Amino acid sequence: MPWLAVAAWAVPPQPDSKLLRLERSLDVMGTTYTVTVYGEDQYRLDSAIDDVFDEARRLDHMLSNYRSESEWSRVNQQALHAPVHVSEELYQLLDACLHYSRESEGAFDITVGPLMKVWGFYKGTEHIPHRAEIRAVLDRVGYQHIHLDPAARTVRFDAPVDMDPGGIGKGYAVDRMVDIFRRDGVGTALISAGGSSIYGLGAPPSEPRGWHIVLPDPRNPRKTAWEIYLRDMSMSTSGTTEKFFVAGGKTYSHLMDPRTGYPVQGMLTVSVVAPKTLDSEAWGKPYFVLGREWAMRHKPKEFRVFLCEDRTENACVSLP
Q1: Is 35 helix (H, G, I), strand (E, B) or coil?
Q2: What is the pTM of this model?
Q3: pLDDT tens, 163-194?
Q4: Are residues 162 and 176 in the same domain?
Q5: Could you tell me the sign of the dihedral formed by the alpha carbons of 243, 261, 284, 55, in that order?
Q6: For a surface tag, which of 71, 75, 230, 277 has the fewest beta carbons within 10 Å of its beta carbon?
Q7: How many domains does the chain have?
Q8: What average pLDDT does the segment 246-254 reach?
Q9: Angle, nearest 10°, between helix axes 169-183 and 42-63?
Q10: Can you tell me the distance from the alpha carbon of 6 to that of 126, in angstroms, rounded to the nearest whole number?
Q11: Are residues 44 and 121 in the same domain?
């Protein structure tokens, strides 16, 4: 299943610079990664883009739950039966996931996959499941069932959970790509994972404020809700418009509350601006699930949060 995207778009700067501009895309990890770079040396730019795309492919082989041979899949297959020794990289990523779950009171949870399946969002068979089905699935959902041993660097499950990288993988990949651009001497780049997780490195020519990003109003996509400039910052968006179905006059989206087993109601989109894409992607889900008041109380000072609620007045607000 593709890692779903909620579109924002970058506005290209005016071509009044002598710097070279290259743009390339790669389909991997269930989405499209598009990079735009500026620089003076085409060979260096081409080489750097090759490096970041190689990194995206490497992460796909590590994190994909659709590759039976991936390290992520190996944990899903074996951790219920015995502790599974994992790489330092995967251990640190899983540790971060559990941290997000604890801090968000369970609103972020990488074990939400069975709920997506019972609601039919994996194979396009969307429907309202029976309450008994949801209760049965909830026994297999919960980050508390994942146990990490830092000394042995192992992962163990105490229930048959199924970890899904969909809520974290794009953000992690974008951050790794940014690190590689910096290592390769590229200081001006925009990386977009399906339009839903974006990082603006440096500032493009003619726009010192950063990369110009437009967020459409989810109730009227032809209308702009916000214009944002990203300079050494990330932005991730979660929303209901990408995958949903209507039953009985009510809209059900793919964005689940893992604590109740039901799709979230009352929120349309949440965009988070943060220094790291891993953070902006992960925290978008709790802010979406728990709402405006919770986000205002808990968001770090360096984050900016943009919410559009399903209401008629004061629907779109910015939390500075």
Answers
A1: strand
A2: 0.91
A3: 999 889 999 999 999 999 999 999 999 999 99
A4: no
A5: negative
A6: 71
A7: 2
A8: 85
A9: 150
A10: 19
A11: no
User: What does the block give as tokens for 111?
Assistant: 């074990």
State how beta strands 233-239 and 267-274 pair: antiparallel
Residues 192 and 249 in one domain: yes
In 3D space, the residue among 306, 305, 234, 236 whose CA is nearest the CA of residue 276 turns out to be 234
H/E element, 70: none
User: 233-239 and 244-247 as β-strands: parallel, antiparallel, unpaired?
Assistant: unpaired
Final residue of a domain: which of 167, 190, 207? 167
pLDDT at residue number 303: 97
Report the pLDDT value the prediction gives residue 2, as an integer from 0 to 100: 34
Structure tokens at 236: 């991730």
For 121, the token pair is 């969002």
Q: What does the chain come to in residues?
A: 320
Q: How far apart are CA 236 and CA 197, in angstroms?
A: 4
Place of tokens 């809209």: 251
CATH at residue 98: 1.10.3980.10
Average the pLDDT over each of 199-208, 236-245, 264-273 and give the range with the smallest value: 236-245
- The pLDDT tens digits of the residues spanning 65-85 come to 889 999 999 999 999 999 999
Three-state secondary-structure class, residue 154: strand
- The amino acid at residue 287 is Y
* 4 domain residue, yes or no: no
- Would residue 246 count as lying in a domain? yes
Give the domain CATH number at 192.
3.10.520.10
Please give the pLDDT value at position 124. Answer: 77
3 state SS of 131: helix
Q: Which amino acid makes up residue 47?
A: S
**Domain end point (choices 151, 167, 183):** 167
Q: Please state, as a whole number, how many other Cβ atoms lie within 10 Å of the Cβ of residue 25.
A: 12
Residue 68 lies in a domain: no
Which residue range(s) make up the domain with 153? 73-167
Name every residue whose Cβ is closer than 8 Å to that of residue 20 and which is 6 or more positions away in sequence: 38, 39, 40, 41, 42, 45
* Residue pair 155/91 in contact by the 8 Å Cβ criterion: yes
